[in-house]
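User: For a reading group we're discussing how well predicted structures match intuition. Take 4-hydroxy-2-oxoglutarate aldolase, mitochondrial. Before you show the prediction, I'll give you the sequence so everyone sees exactly what went in.
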Amino acid sequence: MAFSTRLASSLRPALAALHWAVPRQCRGLSTPQGSEPSLNLGGIFPPLATPFAPTQEVDYAQLEGNLRRYASIPFRGLVVLGSNGEYPYLASRERVDVVSCVRRALPRDRLLLAGSGCESTQATIKLTVSMAEAGADVALVVTPCYYRGAMTTAALVHHYTEVGDASPIPVVLYSVPANTGLDLPMEAVITLAQHPNIIGIKDSGGDITRMGLMVHKTRQEDFQVLAGSASFLLASYAVGASGGVCALANVLGDPLCQLDHLCRKGQWQEARDLQHRLIEPNMAVTRRFGIPGLKKAMEWFGYYGGPCRAPLAPLSPAQVEELRSTFSANGWL
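Assistant: Thanks. Here is the predicted 3D structure of 4-hydroxy-2-oxoglutarate aldolase, mitochondrial, as structure tokens, for the group to look at:
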């Protein structure tokens, strides 16, 4: 795999460079100098899968069961109602109820990031306020995309500025071009990083050059960059990312927290070896098989996966076997 084979040579200088001094701890894994971020997002966040019963209703008992199992893993916090939470298929009331359920079960020292993005600015503000009232610490706001051609830099800056102004909790931008067809423009990110209530971005695009440039261009702001995938977590740390929101953490939470730990300790050989073993399983539960694959894999590791909400369909027996083989080949099963 191209990413895997390039890590050994191309990342070695970048990893060594992680010992440089930078203005803020939120700039990544370097020795902090100066002020701390207002809210430290450093660490691993699993974007929780929303459990459904066979009737297609949200299964809150199974959600609570998964949360009990996750409690022993040293996550920085949890993300609810991200892409892996099937948020487009949930009604607004369901979205708020899921946040309330997670907040009740989550220790106060664990951050709760809640997806509150909607297509209109007005609806996003309304849902963001409701998420805050339900106990969310941070609002994760995806780019509006239905009228993608009209989503200019100016339109997006206006949208997020309005949300940031109105939100009672900090806001993290969310760029996921594989789902939205829209990459939040760099110019918009740089502008929005100056907003006092916008504290970071989850970038799921996988362009490491872009992520490094984001870190560089926002280095004077209280702004943190989060990797949106386990496949490029180590590489994103190499260019200064603060943490990761990784679908694979629903399944392999401890190994991802270990990767985070190894990077922060500068144990790069061990970190590289672990990163290599995570790439194929992560691709399998994201690009290859998506949420149905993620939920199936969760069942093999003691969590409740269950069905997706229609029209997302379950995997075929052949797909299940391919998925299982991917985990086995990398030593996880």
